[in-house]
Amino acid sequence: MASMRVCDSMLPGLAQSFQASTGQAAYAISAFAVAYGLMQLAYGYLGDRHSKYRIAMLATFACTVGTVGSALAPSLEALIAMRGLAGATAGGVIPLSLAWIGDSVRYEQRQATLARFLSGNLLGLIGGQVIGGVFADTVGWRWAFVLLAVVFAVVGFLLLRELRGGTVPMRAPRSSQAGLLAGARAVLALPWTRVVLVTVFLEGMFGFAALVFIPAYLHSEFGVRLAGAGAILGVFGLGGLAYTLVARRLIARLGESGLAASGGAVVSIAFLLLLNGPAWNWAIPASLLAGLGMYMLHNTLQANATQMAPQTRGIAVALFATALFLGQSLGVACGAAVIDNVGAKWIFAAAVLGLFTIGMLFARALRRRAMAGNSDNGA
Fold first, then answer.
1. For the chain, what is the mean pLDDT?
2. At a CB cut-off of 8 Å and minimum separation 6, what does 229 contact?
3. Residues contacting 209, CB < 8 A, separation 6+
4. Measured by CB atoms within 10 angstroms of the end CB, which terminus of the chain is less buried, N or C?
5. How far, in Å, CA of 108 to CA of 100, rounded?
6. Total domain count, the chain
7. Could you count the other beta carbons within 10 Å of the beta carbon of residue 149?
8. Helices 226-276 and 283-305 meet at what angle, rounded to 10?
9. Residue 155 falls within a domain, yes or no?
């Protein structure tokens, strides 16, 4: 997650270093997201057929290559290519880790384990945004990639040591022997799967993509230094952490449809604050609310993704991740053109309308699905 988000707050620094526009520099983010999304199906299939832990370990080592290449990139084109390689390898870490937890941790302990895992993801998100801004403002953006490369290498060796020490539980449920394409076609044939995938694609396009441009907006509009802009966006992760603390109570109180609708509304309010805030400090509560609202909506989508095709769960979750990151990459590409021509405020305005609509429509789809299920049970 730190690697995924490290470029967000250094975009103006990258643009200055390579004498490019902010929109052109943003393709480094889009390249990571596209490669990450496109590789999900392959990793999901390999994880089902082989050892999820071992493949995640190898992917961690492989992340070092693209990250070192990013640090040494002599041109923006080379940086974009190396970020694509980093995204392609990073795509095997988080999803396979989640799948391995599902295989290896008893159900009664799994919820607590997944909560800690999500906390690590969010701390990585915060850390990446802060590291990118701090390094770009001080010793240079290249050293942020050097630090991440060292972390990838160290963690890879720690994982390898655990594997060789025989302390890693390797049991896994018997996986489907269906081919990759056949499994994907079977998942996509389910109507509810298509609803979930389209919704998460739009969430990535309007929501997660818009976050990328917050540091550049604060830097250009209010003169906030890159380190400060990255720290402000890092508050988004704190909003997500706040959700993990109250998730159980919110789900019990609102239900799935209420959580989706409320999440879309809260994140829309967050972008409204950012859009109309007269000073940079308005971005702090806006980022906090954005994190809370996005994870209210995203957690609902994620929960449905794990159950939308139980017989081919690995491929189904891989398709979910693919849709999310392809949506984000398209959103960043569109946002790059918008920010260069008419400014970031139009990106945030689209996020306000798009996320509110997404939340409401998915909430309605959930209610209809629940009513259909009740009707079937009654029949």
1. 85
2. 9, 133, 214, 215, 216, 218, 219
3. 327, 328, 329, 330, 331, 332, 334, 335
4. C
5. 16
6. 1
7. 21
8. 80
9. yes
Instruction: Report which DSSP code applies to 175.
Output: P
State the residue range of the domain holding 6.
2-169+176-370
Are 315 and 188 in contact by the 8 Å Cβ rule? The answer is no
For 46, the 3-state DSSP assignment is helix
Would you say residue 379 lies in a domain?
Answer: no
Question: How is residue 167 annotated by DSSP?
Answer: -
Q: Rounded CA gap, 129 and 237, in Å?
A: 10
What's the pLDDT tens digit per position in 168-200? 765 555 545 556 777 788 888 999 999 999 999
For residues 343 and 355, what is the distance between their CA atoms, to the nearest angstrom? 20
Place of tokens 């890092």: 234
Give the residue from 289, 262, 266, 286 showing the smallest Cα distance to 275. 286
Out of 56-65, 109-118, 284-293, which region has the weakest mean confidence (pLDDT)? Answer: 109-118
Distances (CA, A) of 150 to 258, 332, 337: 43, 28, 34
Is residue 291 a contact partner of residue 125, using CB atoms and an 8 Å limit?
Answer: no
Identify the three-state secondary structure at position 10.
coil
Is residue 232 within 8 Å of 287, Cβ to Cβ? yes
CA–chain centroid gap for 227, Å, is 21
What CATH number corresponds to the domain at position 329?
A: 1.20.1250.20
Per the domain annotation, does 37 fall within a domain?
Answer: yes
Residues contacting residue 226 through CB under 8 Å, at least 6 positions apart: 9, 10, 12, 13, 132, 133, 134, 136, 137, 215, 219
In this prediction, what percent of the chain has a pLDDT beyond 70? 91
pLDDT of residue 348: 93
Q: What are the residue ranges of helices labelled H in 277-344?
A: 283-305, 313-341
Q: What is the per-residue pLDDT for 282?
A: 92
Length of the chain in residues, anyone?
379
